[in-house]
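Changelog-adjacent note: as of this version, every example in the card shows the full chain rather than a window. The one below runs 155 residues end to end.
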Amino acid sequence: MNHNIKEIKMKDNMILEATFFSGDIKDFCVSSLFEKHPEYKVLEANKDLWENAVLLPQGSGVYFNDDLDLTVEEIWRDGKPAGKAAVEPRYAIAYAISSTREEKGLSQKQLSLLSGVSQCDISRIEGGVANPTVETISKLCSVLGLEMHLSKTIA
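Full-length structure tokens:
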């Protein structure tokens, strides 16, 4: 399954909070790596390194320095569920398209050929960095068997 991280927060006790495009929030305990990977202990000793972690492009992981990073798969697999966040439309679209494409066993290239949307555009949409037109979303949804729905919230 393709999970992308929308945002990270560095919490006390070596807990990294990751909010995913799906809205899922997971807490990943970095200190759980210390025994198997002692090199991660530097994060506990160096608060600047810990607090200045960077989200990798398209939410593919977390970067600390040239020697230390975490993949999105590690954080998703080993993180503990910590709630659900509201999802911005572009992230909801990214998650719906990428997860459905993978469920159907299609590569981005195959989806491109079936939909007429370039593979590059599909990658950018799935990475949450594109601002696709309704027409583009409609093409992808048609191939994937997805329906678009709008709802109105009254404040």
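Structural remarks: The domain at 5-84 is CATH 3.30.2020.10 (NE0471 N-terminal domain-like).
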